[in-house]
Description:
Chain A: This is Cytochrome c oxidase assembly protein. The complex is a heterotrimer of chains A (about 270), B (about 180) and C (about 550). With about 180 residues, chain B is mostly helical.
Amino acid sequence: METIFSQWKFNLGASLLFILLITFYFYLTKGKLKMGAAFYFFGCFLMLVLSLSPLHFIGMHYLLSAYMVMHILLLLICGPFILMGIPKETPNTSIKKTSVFFFNYPWMGWLAGIGLMWFWHIPKIFDAAFPKSQSLFGFYPLAFLHMLTLLLAGIFFAWPILGPHKELRAHPLVGLVYLASACVGCSILGLFLTFAPPTLYHHYFMADTFGFASTIKHNWGIDRAMDQQMAGLMMWVPCCFIYLSGCMMLFFKYINAKEKPIVIENNKLERRYS
Amino acid sequence: MMRLVIATEAILFISLMITYVYFDLSVGFTKQSINYLDIKSTGIFSVLLFSSSFTLVQAEKNYSEGKIKKLKIWLFATIVLGSVFLFGQAKEYFKLLNNHFNISLDVFSTNFFTLTGFHAFHVIIGLILLIIVFILTLAGDFDRPNSTALSSIGMYWHFVDIVWILVFTLVYVLPYLLK
Amino acid sequence: METVNVPEPEESLPSTSISNDQGLLQWISTVDHKQIGILYLLMSVLFLLLGGVAALLIRVQLSVPNNNFLSPEMYNQLFTMHGTTMVFLVMTPAILGFSVYFVPLMIGANDLAFPRMNAFSLWIGLFGGMLLYFSFLAGGAPDAGWFNYAPLNQRAYSQSSGIDYYCIGLLLVGIGTVGTSINLIVTIIYYRAKGMSLRKLPVFVWMILINSFLIVAAFPPLNAALSMLLLDRQLQTHFFNNTSGGSPIVWQHLFWSFGHPEVYILILPSFGILSEVFQVYSRKPIFGYSFIVGSGIAIALLAFGVWVHHMFAVGLGLTVYSYFAASSMLIGVPTGVKVFNWLGTMWGGSLRFTTSMLFAMAFLVEFTIGGLSGVAFAIVPIDWQLTDSYFVVAHLHYVFVGGSLFGLMAGLFYWYPKMSGKMISEKLGKWFFWLFVIGFNMTFFIQHILGIKGMPRRVYTYPDLPGYTWMNMLSTIGGFLMSLSFLLLFYILHKSYKIGKPAGNDPWDAYTLEWTVSSPPKIRNFTELPPIYSYRAFRDLKENAKNNKHGK
């Protein structure tokens, strides 16, 4: 018998994205594998697996909370992993340029991450981002765009913190503020989702094409209201927990770092983030 | 310091906006917003407020280059634009009050007046600060570019503008787009 | 001695030129951070007396069942004023007093970054407090509890103007508090001595820095809520009025998204004070500096993610509760880390049991009790059973008094010689300590049991149920012991100031920069500073001197 957990479905958009990302890597390095490539490929692979998995299926058709877990994983796990695998030295200077850009304007990364997350949760846009038919090999530009931008947002968001050029990362204490404020941004969104009326997103009220609705409702005990609350809380609490862990890591990195002997320069540095 | 002041003010506005959205989601403001509010005239006044940010940037630029005469002109322009925006707000308030749309009418009016009123209050504070700086400039206290007063006030003014972008989007534009 | 120049504010400060002999006028017009610090502490004492009297009246009313000593209306006003006063007008000014006094001294600065704003913050805070108390004369004090739930705070249920004074008073107090916090942050970031990077900041200053950020972030929701409430009451708006579409829950969310961080705002400075006190009286640098600071940051960040646990009885849904139960328990972790840091500091140190150290050690016990009953509340079914009972009262007093106040007392006895220039009487101090600890535990420990037995809080009297009478009587006796101990404290402070032995610069053989200057410090704190190699600059200096002597 088919259970909901055996719903591995082919996803053209995600597969295309996977191929694109791999091609991009080899384009960057002119066909060589560099240090940290494993991170990159792990990130891509995780993205692919996630979007073929039953989690994606449930998120697409039944549960907002599953969809939210997908989001968080894409944004906060896949993105940073891919970023960590981006090689530092490449034949062309685009990576270096990006690092310099985010060094000068770290808030752009913040805006990319938090802004996009907010954007895709505006109810109308949220509902529009779902594929309209169930055909396996169909290509849905908006759904593809959704995935691509989320992944890119994850990468750009993490750039000032984990970017490939260590000397062009934000100061750890700036990073702390960066992550803490991101936590606030995503808390507020989570708060809305948690306390908003459950009719917010129409998508999940559609017809039950696959016949799992009663399993979810009766065996799992999750109804629409609870689902949306779980989704909001997912974004609010565990998501923030990831940010806060990042904050703590940055802080300990800062406090345990060796002090530079030149005092004056040090003072200058501190003035920057005040 | 100004950044910290702005941070704490920002959280105040976030609280107010969250309240607005909370009631919006539970009661539904879209209909009232479209019925009562005049997006066109307020939109025009908003554009004036946004442009005051650019004039202030010009003022700051000229100040750092030591062009005091241009500084005075741009400062004056900023003050005028800010005042015109306030005038627009007042006009809208009067119109609403004449239509018996006052703060204690219902949940929407409560939230509308509180949110926009708090913003208008901040515009007034910004204007007072700008006028003080303008008078001091006329008195010759700002002849040399070594004071941070202008850039601090600038930061505040831009913040007030950004808040208005958010409030305007929330109260006027979104209901209009999503109706 | 190798020295470093002290960063000096570039413009001259107003009124530092007024000499010390101008009496009261000088205190009123002062912008010196030390005098303002002392004024803050005096303000705290003033309101402590007022809030304490309210508490005693409450305890007298509750000492026997079916008592008619206070009317229910009066009782409501008194517990509201007691809570509000103690949180906003006693603890907060005491913390700010120690902060504005010692932060500049510990980082080698001569004043705060904005001395005039410092004075403004103090006076506006005091004005706010006065306004709150003026409500007694204006027809009745606020009477809806210190967290002032809607719809009780609406005009229909509270007709006197007390709650309007509550709104305006707390708005002003909030402005003052936020102003001082901004002042402290700017001071700590820009006015540190050369060479004192943030890695070499004393723990107390770190905690104040974190705390100030917390204040800047936590007060705006309160201000928003207070403004809305004022509009509700004055202009008949509909924010919290559930009969016309408003939502009382919004008040709870806004209030607790301030209120929970406020709990940490009151406790973090005490953590900082204790970290200094434990080091000095154990003759051993703090164990795990980076962990103690890091856990402070973790507490501050987590503080904003747990406020819903105050609302477990509202009916927001089990899903919500399970998440917040988990995150609330999580916050116990960094607090536990700190306790182990302090134990590790004492471990193997040569301890000196001064009054200050006794308070610090008692803190560990009392605060752990408060923490444990707090973790118990994070478990939702227990919360449902015990919420709004005397168990809550016991818990919050163990946290506020057993936690914050014990820390502040440790700080008072530690820093008194520096502030007054006189040694404090240790013998009387220990009397005070024991009297206070016994009185405190007698008052509040029994309330755990009363709560479990089901006595509700905020009800002006109770029937003669088995056990209720003697437990309440015991609690009242404890309350009187506590107030007696406070009278003794004021006597000690006064007497030590009059006839105490001169303290000298460094009576405790302490570690941080404030002990390098005279006691009390001159108007200009520093003319020269030792070089700064770590967060315990003064100790490094003394160790170096010792080593050089032995070397020669």
